[in-house]
Write a structure and sequence with these properties.
Layout lengths: L3 H13 L2 H8 L3 H15 L4 E4 L2 E4 L1 H25 L5 E8 L1 H17 L2 E8 L2 H9 L5 E4 L8 E16 L9 H7 L1 E3 L3 H12 L12 E4 L7 H5 L5 E4 H5 L7 E4 L6 E9 L6 H13 L5
Parallel strand pairs: 3-4, 3-5, 7-8
Antiparallel strand pairs: 1-2, 5-11, 6-9, 6-10, 6-11
């Protein structure tokens, strides 16, 4: 590889056309300019200039090297422009979050993209630990997780408190539910549903609840958008974060049952340290925080 310092001196010499003025412009001595020229020619293996008194002309090798010097300058200018250009409405950004939050968030993201045509946003539904890992390794710019994260390479901002909701068919609205009635209706299970049941039911039925493995299950669904469908059809109940209920197109066919003790998840936006200072990342994080106020 050509020595960058020697190449820059040679490029300046070609632009200025004079050894003394090149030395003055570069903060060097004239012998220093000549030394850089000779070292670069030695590195190339051919003479770069042909002297004629105080003037000079470029050899074919010199013309080729000058082209490289000019191209490298342009690359550095382009790099500087890329680094210094930081528009909140331009560029690519990726987000990882739970399936229910992704369903709720995506329409808001589409609205943001309508107002920022040069912003490219990717939303990926992923489990908690995958989100954290992907933010750490740079796969995701932002992550939304349901518990506080303490990590030396991550920034975490509290987003919202999201209720865990017991969802039943609309025809069951207004009934006082206990475990017996819930088991008669039966559980629409999903990957996070068992943990949600342990959390919410143990809080409200501490004497009678024996664990999610004892629940009567009617069906199991692993596609987040389809989980409320059996409930809307009257086939059972389920437990979802409020975002999963709000994102369901047929939510008017559901009823949320408020048990005596409510359970909430604390949502956090996480990003890798330094990444949150990028304008588009900071702007989208703020946008998500404003939108999530509706979940409170």
């Amino acid at each position: 590889m050509l020595n960058a310092t020697w190449l820059e001196t040679f490029t300046t010499l070609c632009e200025v056309g004079h050894f003394t003025r090149t030395a003055e412009q570069s903060g060097m001595t004239q012998p220093g300019v000549s030394q850089h020229l000779n070292k670069l020619a030695s590195q190339v293996g051919k003479p770069l200039i042909s002297k004629d008194g105080k003037s000079f002309t470029l050899t074919p090798a010199g013309e080729a090297v000058l082209a490289i010097g000019l191209a490298r300058r342009q690359q550095e200018r382009d790099l500087h422009d890329t680094i210094s250009f930081d528009d909140p409405d331009v560029g690519e950004i990726s987000i990882g979050c739970s399936g229910s939050f992704a369903m709720w968030l995506y329409p808001h993201i589409l609205d943001r993209m309508h107002h920022a045509p040069e912003l490219v946003i990717s939303v990926t539904a992923a489990p908690h630990m995958s989100i954290v890992t992907s933010v750490l390794n740079g796969k995701f710019d932002l992550g939304v997780v349901a518990e506080p994260i303490s990590h030396p390479r991550l920034d975490a901002i509290e987003l919202a408190r999201e209720e865990l909701c017991l969802i039943v068919p609309r025809s069951f609205a207004g009934q006082n539910f206990d475990l017996h009635l819930l088991n008669e209706l039966s559980f629409v299970a999903h990957p996070d549903g068992y943990a949600y049941a342990d959390d919410l039911f143990f809080l409200n039925f501490p004497k009678d609840y024996k664990g999610s493995d004892r629940l009567r299950v009617r069906t199991f669904v692993n596609q987040i958008g389809q989980i409320p469908i059996p409930v809307a059809e009257g086939l059972g109940y389920t437990i979802l974060p409020k975002s999963g209920v709000d994102a369901f197109a047929r939510k008017q066919e559901l009823a949320i049952i408020r048990l005596p003790k409510q359970r909430y998840q604390d949502l956090w936006v996480i990003s890798r340290k330094g990444r949150s200072e990028i304008a588009r990342v900071a702007a989208l994080s703020s946008f998500i925080s404003s939108a999530a106020a509706a979940l409170r």
